[in-house]
Amino acid sequence: MSDDRFYWRGRLFSEDEDDDMDGGSQEEEDEWEEGDQGWGSGGEEDLEGEGHEIVGDEDDSDAVDEFEDGTAFHHGDFGQDFLPGHDEDIDRGFTSDGEDEDDVLEGSNPRKGQPRRGRPSGSKKTYESVQKILQLIKDENLTLPSFLSALSWGDYHCARDVKMAATRRSFLHSRTFRMLLYRWWKPPRSSVSRKKPPEGGRKCLTAFAYACTLEALDMELQNLDPLTRTTSQKLSQKELTDFDVEKFAQAIARKAPVFWSMLKLLATTEEQRKANTHKNPQQSLLLIITMLLYSRSQMCNKLQRVFAFFFKFKGLKARGFEVLHSLGITMSYKWTTNAVKTLSKETMLELRWMIKRYAWAASYDNLHIGYDIYNPKFDKVKEDKAGTAAIVHIKKDAPILDEVVNRALQKQRAVGQRTPINTSFIWHLLLESQPRIEAAMVYEVLDVLLGSDEFKFKTYRHRKDPQLQPPSPVRQLPSGPDHISHPYMLGTMHISESSLEGNSKVVDAMLTQLGVGTNEERQKLGVSRLVFFLGDQLTVGHLRTLQHMRCQDPNSFDRMDHIIPIFGWLHFEMTEVRSLHKQYLGTETGLVSLRRALVSLGRKDLMLAGTQGDFHEKFSKTLKQVMVAHIRACWVIMGRTENLEDLRNKGPRELAALARKIVDEFASTLALNQLKAHSNFDQVKVQAVTFLRDVLQHAVLRRAMKYGDVGLMEDLLPHKLLRFAGGQNSHYTGEVLELLQGLHREWVPEVKDFVRNHTWLMNQRGKPDSFRAADDIMEDGIKAIKDTHSLRGPKVDWKYFEIVHPVIPVVTAVSTHVETQFKAWSRYTSHTASSDKTGIQILQRSYLKSGIYETRLGRTLHKTNQAKDYVNDGFTKLQLGIAQRWAEGRDFVRATEEDWPSDETDDSDVSMAGDETSLEASGSAREDGTVTWNAVTMLSETAGAAGGGNTIRRAAGAS
């Protein structure tokens, strides 16, 4: 091993490559041409004025004195304030009081010529050469500091000398130079020495490194300024949701590698880096750097704007905002409030622009918001107040139904009203749709087997066989980016929609917010456009009743001819779930009762059906588990096996045939009729078959809604009609009849297609499995207003809600984006369902043990556990008068004249002044209110529709 190698901090350095490091450029020498930067025309005098040391002709003692006075180290722009530990030692030349040269020399001659850790290697020849050079420097009337200063651009002539420049360049670009810096900073010493270690040039180099680091970090922060700087005070959803933490951190690391590496090293200890290889302080480093940039300029606020908007709707109070703002984490509370108001105003303007260029549908629902008492001495006692939230769905892929369609609809509506659907037509629809529904039920049965842990479908050799795929959709909605619906939330209105008058005011206020306020605009809407209002049964029932009441008003807008009410499929499904709960609850002793299944699954909290809270979600999940247990038991019976894994030996055609057999024998009306043909039929098996048939149809509906098969949803309508009629749910009986009447009697083809394709389901993500009912989206909006993004404070009132709530969709998108970027939900995403699987297996064994799918003639159920067949009873009730009463209740004549008021009588107004955006319903107050409300009594005498007639009678009583 050569003598010019040494150890530093466990690493072996070498000086062998010094001669190969002559890689400098000629540009360094060009800088020293006379008159160039760094040198003035006055020569050495200019250098002296700049504080540079000029050596050569001066006396040696003077040169040494200058160096020891501290002038040889030129601080430049940094100044002594940046030098840590600046004291008299530094001014004396950075000498070490405790340095013992013997301590260094003691270890400079390692045994057998081998370098040891911390010991420099050496030779006698090198020692003698160094002594000669030092003596030569002294003989030339120089000192070592003055010699190095002259060689390092400290002398004008030396700086211009080509040979010296090459030597200097080779030295500064060599590894030896870096090695010397390490040695000067921490001189090597013997590992066995007990003396005080030599200080070397630690103080000087530390101060120099500190100043250089500050300059380097300052330059890197300047490089990061454009990356974080924003040019506009306005917020936009695109700006807030395009922020990518990973890409932003990578960009910062590229533009500020020194700063990023330094912070990354300081953020973890050496033990952490070894023990925890998954720890990544990236987000902490990102926050630190953005806080520093925000402190340098408040326009460098890209991350702060995202956090401000996020925390605004997460319950952070004003004082909390100001604390985070003082730390540089968020924007100020005032800035955020003003930005939200501006964004809300721009959102409403954008919506008004949208509805003039694209098709749209609207939905609204009631909500109750409670107020908090912040100062009992001054605040009045405030109770929960009822209001109404509304959403407008922009459908860019839908056709705009123009005046031609509007006029054609009015004519067809008059014709169809005279030919209402009857039980014969409903029976025809049942028979025609039955094969498609049964095919979907067969796949649900097959899917339970394929999804079981025992079957291991991923390793099944025939898993791609067409026999195991879902049946072809009846009418599939398209998906993709071009078919995304865009929800816009309107300002929340302080109007209760629980009454007919309230619904009339809500519709009027919504149109006012949308910019339809003048008589001209309303005339254009009433004659040349159609508006689809989506909601629960109460909402659409009230709208239909208002249309009935205003049927003789002077123009189409007042008659609401342009409005087509459509019930929401979420509430439709919720009604079916509650019907199943009511039908099959029974007692714990019932072999097929839901109560017994709920006890086995540990869900006693679902014994009572409810419409509030999360009952629907929990019970729907539990109902599916019960259905899975039934189907698994059927597979064991049909497959004649004890374990579902044995069915892997069967081919796909045989499995599909078994699934069809399960539906035919254990889940069909035909099987029920055959079982009931015996005088002493098995009541347990009849109820089991009835239950499995009904829950399979419910599963088919849920799958159709999820994947956008509106054709299958339409096929299910007559079947659900029988359930609602048999289960005494008069409201949805009337709604289904109204929908079937529109689809088959009163609507023109353009309206039928629009209702099927653009009102029943919405897709906000563009994925094939992401369809949702419009009222489901409405419920999410209400939840965001009341809970997820609720606003609380002494100045929060209905006027503020009206201003702020249009940004709720943006808030939801930003919240989801931020939580995803910072993995705020990672702790909730992974969970196990082992308890659910155990409960399903317990139910399966119970059903097999009790033999509910075995025929045992004469087996009976107690009266409390006997469930009625709602489907069979429903058809009987339709025949006995429900359909007839519904038809009679909607038999009225609509006026056709168009008598519009003049513009001079228009008292509508749309106010959007300044930041305090006010969108209040002010116009279209009905002057003929007395005539209209008196008509309620006349209508109530003739209205006999199930649901609609009841609503009219209640309205008449209230009036």
Secondary-structure blueprint:
Layout: E1 5-8, E2 11-14, H1 27-30, H2 44-50, H3 60-68, H4 88-91, H5 101-106, H6 124-139, H7 144-154, H8 156-160, H9 162-172, H10 175-185, H11 202-228, H12 237-241, H13 245-255, H14 257-266, H15 270-275, H16 282-296, H17 302-312, H18 318-326, H19 333-355, E3 359-369, E4 385-395, H20 403-417, H21 423-450, E5 485-489, H22 500-513, H23 519-528, E6 531-535, H24 537-549, E7 563-567, H25 569-584, H26 594-600, H27 615-639, H28 652-666, H29 669-676, H30 683-707, H31 710-726, H32 730-746, H33 749-758, E8 761-763, E9 771-773, H34 774-788, H35 798-804, H36 808-821, H37 826-829, H38 834-850, H39 870-889, H40 929-942, H41 948-958
Parallel strand pairs: 3-6, 6-7
Antiparallel strand pairs: 1-2, 3-4, 4-5, 8-9
Helix pairs in contact: 13-14, 13-16, 17-19, 17-36, 20-32, 21-28, 21-30, 21-31, 25-30, 27-28, 27-30, 27-38, 29-30, 30-31, 31-32, 31-39, 40-41
